[in-house]
Amino acid sequence: MIRTKRQGLIIWFQHMKNIKQIKRYGHLIAVSRQSRYAVIYVNQHEAEDKLLKLEQLPFISKVDYSYKPFIRREFDNTKVDKAKEYDYKMGI
Question: What are the residue ranges of helices labelled H in 1-92?
Fold first, then answer.
């Protein structure tokens, strides 16, 4: 199975009633009622086109990319906490 690269888009909108229209542009992950933003995921090669289309909608205030795919998740030279290491050996 081939996995496609996905890109998150963070969309700030004006009214909750427009969520149904935002859903048409990608896979809706989360919606904040208080801050009035939504997070959708789209294919990475389509992300720029979707961003431009979303920005043209009248009820959208702002659209940003999520930087999650570009953040390094492997860390080097991590220091081991001696207290935690001792607790793990004891079975706590």
Answer: 19-23, 47-56, 82-90
Domain count for the chain: 1
- The pTM for the full model equals 0.73
Per-residue pLDDT tens listing for the chain (92 residues) = 778 889 999 999 999 999 999 999 999 999 999 999 999 999 999 999 999 999 999 999 999 998 887 777 776 666 666 666 666 666 55
CATH of the domain at 21: 3.30.70.80
Q: Is residue 13 part of a domain?
A: yes
Residue 55 lies in a domain: yes
The residue segments making up the domain with residue 14 are 6-70
Cα separation, 63 vs 12, in Å, equals 6
